[in-house]
Amino acid sequence: MWDFKQLGIPELDRNEWGLIALTTTAVCGSTALLWGYYKKSCKSHQKWWNEQKKPSWGWLLSNTNVSMLLDSLSFAGIPAAIYFAYKQDTDRKLAAAIAMVSGGALLACSTLSVPVYMNSKDLQCLSTTSLSLSLTSGTLAVSLYNINRAAGILILPSFLWCAYCFLVIYGCENINVPLK
Predict the structure, then answer these.
(1) Ramachandran sector of residue 66 (left: φ over 0; alpha: ψ -120 to 50; beta: rest)
(2) What share of the chain is helix, strand, coil (3-state, %, to 5)?
(3) 7: nearest Cα among 84, 71, 61
(4) 140: closest CA among 90, 89, 80, 69?
(5) What is the DSSP letter of 143?
(6) Which of 38, 40, 103, 172 lies 20 to 30 angstroms, CA to CA, from 64?
(7) What is the pLDDT of residue 3?
């Protein structure tokens, strides 16, 4: 069996694993509900997005169902990562506090950006929002990695997904902007 200590995962009892499972389900479920609402009620925005020319490698964002699933799953590691950093027995309390604040900031930015993604038809606004999410998740990954390796690695899917979304939207912005 794997040695959790060697991986950087602190020893947790069953209640703590249950707490992590519950918060992960809440984060993924709320993201999925928001995307479900978007798919059901924002048909004009979906039509506008599907009409935009995208880079050839941006096909993941073209398929709404795949992007909804990946977006929901990309945030699955955040609750566990934050809890691992919290449980880490370290004398670097400031680093742990920064990690907690940046984790909360990432979840807040993600939640607050949903209306932007659902309603904005401005590619520059969408790329700026995606860039802020990407930078926030990158900051969180680095700060958590300095506290606990496993915690930092758990944030990588979120960072990679946010960075991919930013690059696709930035590519769309450059392709679809009319020449002056």
Answers:
(1) alpha
(2) 80, 0, 20
(3) 84
(4) 80
(5) H
(6) 103
(7) 66
Q: Can you give the C-alpha Rg of the chain in angstroms?
A: 18
Domain ranges of the chain: 13-43+64-176
In this structure, the chain runs to a length of: 180
Give domain 13-43+64-176's CATH architecture.
Up-down Bundle (1.20)
Q: Which two tokens stand for residue 121?
A: 């038809």
The residue type found at 17 is: W
Burial class of residue 120, CB neighbours in 10 A (0-12, 13-18, 19+): middle
Residues 123 and 103: their CA atoms lie apart, in Å, by: 26
pLDDT digits (tens, 9 = 90+) for 34-77: 777 877 787 887 888 888 888 988 888 877 778 888 888 888 88
Q: What is the DSSP string of 147-175?
A: H-HHHHHHHHHHHHHHHHHHHHHHHHHHH
Give 115-124 contacts, CB < 8 A, sequence gap 24+: 117/38, 118/38, 118/42, 118/45, 119/42, 119/45, 121/45, 121/48, 123/52, 123/169, 123/172, 123/173, 123/176, 123/177, 124/173
